[in-house]
Structures are given as C-alpha cells and as structure tokens.
Amino acid sequence: MSVEMMTAKGEVAPRSESNWARAWRRFRRNRLALFSLIALLAMHVAVIFLPSFLKHDPNTISLFDRFLPPGAKGHILGTDEMGRDVLARLVYGGRVSLGIGFSAMLGSIIIGTICGAVAGFWGGWVDVVIMRITDAMLSFPVFFILLTLLTILGTSIQMIVLVIALTSWMNVARIVRGEVLRAKSSQYVEAAIAVGNSNLAILARHILPQCIPSIIVAATLGVAYSILTESSLSYLGLGVKPPTPSWGNMLSSARSYIWSAPHLVMYPGLLIFVTVLLYNALGDGLRDALDVAAHR
After folding, report:
1. 290: left (phi > 0), else alpha (psi -120 to 50), else beta?
2. What's the pTM?
3. Which CATH number fits domain 81-295: 3.40.50.12280, 3.40.50.1370, 1.10.3720.10, 3.40.630.10?
C-alpha cells in the first residue's frame, strides 16, 4: 500500500527524503570526498584480489637480482636490497597495513562507543570515573605508551592491533558521550521511558542509532591514525617484523638506500601519505554531509 500523501487538490505529494538520502546527496556534491571514497575502495579491492594475479612471491630472495630498476626482468617496480619484487611486497604489505588500520579502528570504536554510551546514559559517579580515566589517557604521550607496551608484550600483528585500539578510543568515547547526552533529553527517549522500556533497550534502539553519523566520521579518521601509527612503529622496528611486509617496515628497510635506490623509499612512503590523505578527506566529507544541524 502506498505511503505517499495526497495534497488538497488530489495530487500525489512527493515522498519525503530520508536523512541518509539527503546525506548521500550532499556527499556526492563534495568531489574530493567522493574521489577519496572511490580511490580507497579501489585500493582495498586491489590489495585483496591483486595478489592472485601476481607472478612473483613477495618473500622470494634473489641476491643476483638486487636493486633492479623498474621494468627489469619482469619486475614492474623493480626489486629491493634482497632481490624481492617490490610490487608484490607493496600489495601484500597493503593487506597488512590496511588490515591493521581497519582492525585497530574497529577495536577503538567498540571500546570508545561502550565507554561513551555508558558514561553519558547513566551519568553520576559512572560518568565521572569513565571520563576521568579518559582524560588521564589523553594526558599521557600515547606514542611512548605504545612503545613501552610493545616492548613488554611483543610485536605480533595481533598485539599491535590490540595496543593501538587500547590507546586510541578516548576521542570516540567523548564524541559518543556528547551525542548520548544530547539524545537522552529528547522527547522520544522520554516517551520510551514512560512506556516502560529497559535502559539497555532505550540505549540500543533509540539513542545509539543517533550516534551512528558521528561514529562513522570517527571511524574513517581512526583508520588513518592507525595506519600512520603502525607505519611509525614499523619504521622504528617495533611494528610488523620482516619477512612479513608492511608499508612501514618496507620504508624502514629502504632508508639505508635512499641515495642509491630512492624508489624503494618513494613507493611505500607515497602509499602511506596518499592513503592517510584520502581517509582524512573522506572523513571531512562525511562530517560535512552527516552534519544535520549545518544543513537545516
């Protein structure tokens, strides 16, 4: 049955546009953000599916083929200091770097959303304790905490993801807390309380959905932060360990050959720079598109 409304003249009124449809329409007008989305999708698809079509293994060493220039002997981007194919290592390294970035972001979003929602909804001493812990975490130099934890706990990929997530949830918690406080005072939440819904049901069904736009923006920026953090850790030797490639440890290995083989530094460095830049541009575009108050 149609839900379209009839006007006074008997004509069918146009169906109202949803908030998500309006946000998508605003997002499409932002050409930089739209380009960033398309480029990031292409990059993720490439690191997932392209390895099946590569003829070189990323860890195969050939000391007779060290420092080959791009295009030599079938190596499109040349070889590194151990004769390994640079293109293959970039693609497989992208899997690792982007996988760590996405996984760490997901962990920080989950932790931050739970802490922010609990603090904002229940308030009182719960809010005070959680937010003081959040403020304390923000006051510490996070990178030195990362270095200390990884030195003590080890530098496996799983541990890198866990440590980045445990040290990057604070801003998400503050954002979600603010959104929960705003939504908690709305009339539909008061109506849900009046009809006897439980606190968890109100939080899950009526409040957290209102936080989704802010969480999406935080997630895109969180991926960029996690990729940059993993690359920095790998560059310092506390990230992903060779022979497993990542953009960060490829950059670290190539720094000794910056003058003799500059392309070894340029490729991973450029990929890190472009990926972080695209995620930041996407986050800015999503923030503008999902900001309902700015478009009223």
Report:
1. alpha
2. 0.85
3. 1.10.3720.10
